[in-house]
Amino acid sequence: MNLSVENLSKVFINDGNVHTVLSGVNFTVQEGQFVTLLGPSGCGKTTLLTIIAGFQSATEGSVLLNGQQVSTPGPDRGFVFQNYALFPWMTVRENILYPMKRRKMPRQQREQRLQELLTMAQLEGKEGLYPQQLSGGMKQRTAFIRALAGSPEVLLMDEPLGAVDFQMRQILQEELESIWLKDQTTVLMVTHDVDEAIYLSDRVIVMSAQQGNILEDLAIKLHRPRNRNGEKYIKYKVHLMNLLKKALHKEPEAPGKELELCLA
Amino acid sequence: MEPVENKARIYNSRNSRLMRETFMGSMGYKKLFYRAITIASFLAVWQLAANYYNSEFMMPSPWTTMVTFAAILHDPEVIANLLLTLKRVLTGFCYALLIGIPLGFLMGYSKIAMQLFDPLIDSLRQVPIMAWVPLTIVWFGLGDGPTVFLIAFAGVFPIIMNTIAGVQNISKDYYHAARSMGAKPWSVFAHVIVPASLPDILIGSRVAIGLGWMSVI
Ligand SMILES: Nc1ncnc2c1ncn2[C@@H]1O[C@H](COP(=O)(O)OP(=O)(O)OP(=O)(O)O)[C@@H](O)[C@H]1O
Ligand SMILES: [Mg+2]
């Protein structure tokens, strides 16, 4: 598996106003990595990720998966939505089986994979429930294993933990990590949370608020599971926070944003 | 696909409770109690009014009405007419569904279809239903035809409108999710569009049946 973004640009034109969100973005994600796109709010992370997913088109440049250009959504790129987008008319079981049926997986194999995934996400016994009967964390895990069920080559996640509170977020990060360690699918995740990026990633790509310029491509060399209070961990954190502050500095001051970064 | 009730039950949209109550017939005791109070007060007011007018012709008492009603129910001719009306309403309703749902799906999904059909439907909708009576008699002759047509005609609009609303309200995320799990257009239709708009379609159908009964004449 090899995902590369080449010279990607995205320009929005609204009422004659030209708004360049991304300009000449380049990076490559290798097999088995957990990569995070980190950047201030509004810098174009979602735009970039949805272009990779094929939900919208790039103005210029291309996305290559194993050397092949991709421009429409496909099962080779799984997607976890911020609001999960689980189908409320299907049970947990039907939701998870959905991508496997679309890929024409034989029934026996499907059932086996379903059980594996349910075990992995500690959702055994919940398969008959509908999404609205699940807790936030259970929804998140269901969304995660649903996206894994079709065995995508790469999993794209847009702030998958954005909708939960601080403490829940840490717990979910740990759960997500443990599922990922068992599955080892390549992940490209978007977040604006520094701590989350360091806790989960092998590699953090920092985007600036200006046209999605890549400020730094940082490898996180820490053993898993990571100790959030470890000396090196804190060093990474301070470094990235300073970088993000710099990323924001040229922009007009947005109240609350700095605070958010400090709390993270 | 599963049976419809099964799906209707699990919806958490604004319509769900309504549907659960009316379609599933699962009325709680509390509900039954309130309903009984409504009926009792209605009968009481009726009885008072009958006492006041004291005339069988202007305001018969509830009891007399009930006795007469029971007598009518034994009259084979009345039963036959009732069945005939029922048949007409159901036939008209089926036509309304057969035309309204596909049209609604099409118009809700495709902007082009919307632009093509919307002006036509919007103008047809404005014509008072009675204005169609002479025309339908010319078209279908006397008999079932005109009535069935009018019932279908009255019912088709709420079905179209609600189906459109149902389809348009589907979050883009569901389409994206389906497609990034490998769904082909058919699966997007069968597993996303249909179940997601079903609550609205059922609401439209309820309105359509109601309008159908009212346009029986
Ligand atoms: N459809 C669109 N039309 C016009 N502008 C858009 C559109 N979508 C996004 N933008 C603009 O692109 C910029 C980047 O948006 P995007 O959603 O990608 O940011 P983000 O990095 O994901 O932010 P956040 O962390 O808050 O989610 C924003 O300034 C936004 O206003
Ligand atoms: Mg975003």
Automatic annotation (TrEMBL), chain A:
Name the InterPro entries on file. AAA+_ATPase, ABC_transporter-like_ATP-bd, ABC_transporter_ATP-bind, P-loop_NTPase
**Protein's UniProt keywords contain Nucleotide-binding:** yes
Q: Which CDD domains match?
A: ABC_NrtD_SsuB_transporters
> ABC transporter domain: from which residue to which, for each copy?
3-234
Q: Which SUPFAM superfamilies match?
A: P-loop containing nucleoside triphosphate hydrolases
The UniProt keywords, alphabetically, are:
ATP-binding, Hydrolase, Nucleotide-binding, Transport
Q: Which Pfam families match?
A: ABC_tran (PF00005)
Q: What is its EC number?
A: 3.6.3.-
Q: Which domain of life is it from?
A: Bacteria
The GO terms describing molecular function are:
ATP binding; ATP hydrolysis activity
Q: What is this protein called?
A: Bicarbonate transport ATP-binding protein CmpD
From TrEMBL, chain B:
Q: Which GO terms describe its biological process?
A: transmembrane transport
Residues of the ABC transmembrane type-1 domain: 82-217
| Segments forming a coiled coil | none
Keyword annotations for this protein, in alphabetical order, are: Cell membrane, Membrane, Transmembrane, Transmembrane helix, Transport
Q: How does it sit in the membrane?
A: Multi-pass membrane protein
Q: What residue ranges are annotated as transmembrane?
A: 32-53, 89-112, 148-167, 188-214
Q: Which CDD domains match?
A: TM_PBP2
- Taxonomic superkingdom: Bacteria
The compartments listed are:
Cell membrane
Which PROSITE patterns does UniProt cross-reference here? ABC_TM1
SUPFAM superfamilies in the record, alphabetically? MetI-like (SSF161098)
**Gene Ontology cellular component terms for the protein in this record:** plasma membrane
Keyword Transmembrane assigned to the entry: answer is: yes
Q: Give the matching PANTHER family.
A: ABC TRANSPORTER PERMEASE PROTEIN MJ0413-RELATED, ALKANE SULFONATE ABC TRANSPORTER-RELATED, MEMBRANE SUBUNIT
* Family (UniProt): Belongs to the binding-protein-dependent transport system permease family.
Q: What is this protein called?
A: Aliphatic sulfonates transport permease protein SsuC
Question: Which organism is this protein's natural source?
Answer: Sporotomaculum syntrophicum
